[in-house]
Amino acid sequence: MKIKEILSEEGKEQKISAKGWVRTRRGSKHVSFIALNDGSTINNIQIVAEGDSFNEELIKQITTGSCISVDGELVTSKGSGQAVEILANKIEVLGAADAEEYPLQPKKHSLEFLREKAHLRFRTNTFSAIFRLRHALTFAVHKFFNDKGFFNLHTPIITGADAEGAGEMFQVTNLDLENLPKTSDGKIDFESDFFGSKTNLTVSGQLEAELGALALGQVYTFGPTFRAENSNTSRHLSEFWMIEPEVAFADLETNMDLAEEFLKYCIQYCITHNADDLQFLDKRMGDEERNLKKEERSEMGLLERLQFVLENDFVRLTYREAIDVLRNSKPNKKKKFKYLIDGFGADLQSEHERYLVEKKYKKPVIITDYPKGIKAFYMRMNEDNETVRAMDILFPTIGEIIGGSQREERLDKLQARMEEMDVDQEELWWYLETRKFGTCKHAGFGLGFERLIMFVTGMKNIRDVIPFPRTPQNAAF
Ligand code: ATP
Ligand code: MN
Hints:
Blueprint: H1 3-7, E1 14-27, E2 31-37, E3 45-50, H2 56-61, E4 67-76, E5 84-95, H3 111-116, H4 125-147, E6 151-152, E7 158-159, E8 171-172, E9 199-201, H5 206-216, E10 218-226, E11 239-248, H6 252-273, H7 275-290, H8 302-311, E12 315-318, H9 319-327, H10 330-333, H11 350-360, E13 365-371, E14 387-395, E15 399-406, H12 411-421, H13 429-436, E16 442-448, H14 449-457
Helix pairs in contact: 4-6, 4-7, 6-8
């Protein structure tokens, strides 16, 4: 039985067996108390090993990190701290863990240290909780869209387009880098590369998802994306997972409503299904923040913050309104921002986003209608010819969690933007054909999955919410 099930068997005394990894063992010569965890829940089951069948040799092998199997009786616990425990009849050590060498001792380790032990960090309470929540969120994403009649579309990971418009790409090749084939004019001959053309890892599945939406109506992607940006921040990974819904006949209003409902659904799903894990992480965040200076502490605990997002409407304002608010804000007037806001056209930096979300409105904020110059070519042009129907959703402590837009469905306007922004129209001929044949209004967005997990778990570094993070200079494990 899984420990999660065993712990809910209160009052039903029975023969039972369990397998798992030892968190701690304490006790005396005559009796040992073992805290056992099998990953099914944050909670451990207590194993009591008493009597002659447990010789010293066996007990010595039951150390933190070792893997054991236990047969015994489930009984009401005599001690405090747990309702039930297992009185062991037989214990078998399936895999010992040398106590001198095992890196995870029953004490607090730093997150940095645990990143270097990413192969074992699943065995800590913190990381097992995070990865159970990551699973719950994955499941919630699929359930949300499935229940709404969306179709999951698997868009390619290797792409021939290098104009997806979302940042630097990783090239995919099997050419011999020591001996590159050249064309007659001295350039690299990609015709002799594996795919017969230059290829990259995708930075977004959006363009292909649009093709799906303009036939299947509503689709979503949920896959890995890759960005070769050298931004070593706590919110960027080189390999991250993105969820990208795309909806035919939708405008930006519908898009915002969908995104807000979606985020709230995912958060509620975790509160309903992963209460133990969230409670643990709530306490963890509280403990962590007690060591911070008062002004660096969050105003709300983790659970309180999640509840708060569920209960409040997101604030919606245009870029122009946001710029006015920022220009007249205290930190701007007192020159406290690193990048001062002087007017229309400025790109919002994370300091500005955090001011709006954490200081000014104290709620998630959706900013719409950005200047065309700082957004991608496929966003729908507004009447003013200066702004596009873009939306960014900003979350407390995270900053941008979603970026989306109503797409430009008018062929002439789309081509004009591509011209202006120097995007290769020949390469994207297939994208342009959807505007030529049966085009319609449509919209969509991209949610960075790890940023959502950061918000739900309260983790402050994105490297701690993906099993094996890929960042500049690091692809270990
Ligand atoms: P940012 O300004 O934070 O770099 P972006 O504008 O480049 O984000 P988009 O291209 O709109 O982001 O991608 C959609 C979403 O994907 C973002 O809102 C964010 O949640 C997430 N995202 C973008 N880049 C990364 C990254 N390098 N690592 C993790 N998540 C990312
Ligand atoms: Mn970016």
